[in-house]
Amino acid sequence: MRVLAIGAHPDDLEILCGGTLAKFAKRGDEVVMVHLCSGNMGGREIEPDKLAEIRDKEAKKAGDIIGAEVLGPIADDLDLYPTKDMRIKVVDIIRYAKPDIIITHSPNDYMPDHTITSQLVFEASFTATLPLYKTGQPTHEPIVPIFYMDTLAGIGFEPTDYVDITDFFQMKKEMLLCHESQYKWLSGHHQADPINLIETMAKFRGLQCGVLYAEAFQTAQLWGRLRAERLLP
Fold first, then answer.
1. Which is nearest to 179 in space by CA: 74, 33, 75?
2. Dihedral sign from CA coordinates of 183, 187, 190, 193
């Protein structure tokens, strides 16, 4: 199976679905990890252009841990908008990846890059199926199921699906630790130690579904996107 995970920034996927992506990769699925934004606003002391370079390298290092292909960005932080041009860029990402499922942000997350990513992915994932909609990549016709990741701290999110990541939590942690530029920033600006955040959330979701560590998702409950079989690992 081909899995396409699209987050707003480098480290979003590691925080919200890193264990699931590691589990997909372990069972032999092909995983493509995308960050639509460069991450250039995620700090205080490093100049934006330099920070974008650092964060791109950190994202690729994290992807290497599970053998995932890493793509992006298409915009700088807070320069992501639901425009036609950006939708076309996401269409081409989807057509290139040819996914069987897509994982992305909840439309109800806490900041604009996350919610706009969710909107762009939803719109582009249908647009990508249309043979007469010409872009730089050939059409990928299946209407692909979408799984929305948990929100930050799980606020306003009611899961429909859980993935047991007990055996993959350490790998999730290693992936997040690749994002060295973000330790001080997240702990200070967001007032949340990133490792404590992912462990607390994984235990909380695990408690809900009867395992030690879990990640939570919502399926896009829409015609054409639902499947009878379980797609998450």
1. 33
2. positive
Range of the domain at 111: 2-219
CATH code where residue 210 lies: 3.40.50.10320
Give the tens place of pLDDT for each residue, 39-82. Answer: 999 988 899 999 999 999 999 999 999 999 999 999 999 999 99
Residue 184 counted as domain residue = yes
**Is 229 domain-assigned?**
no
C-beta of residue 160 within 8 angstroms of C-beta of residue 173 = no
Q: How far apart are CA 99 and CA 225, in angstroms?
A: 13
CA distances to 36, 46, 83, 149 from 137, in Å: 18, 36, 19, 27
* Residue-wise pLDDT tens digits, 117-149: 999 999 999 999 999 999 999 999 999 999 999
Note whether residue 232 is domain-resident: no
Q: Give the predicted TM-score (pTM) of the model.
A: 0.97
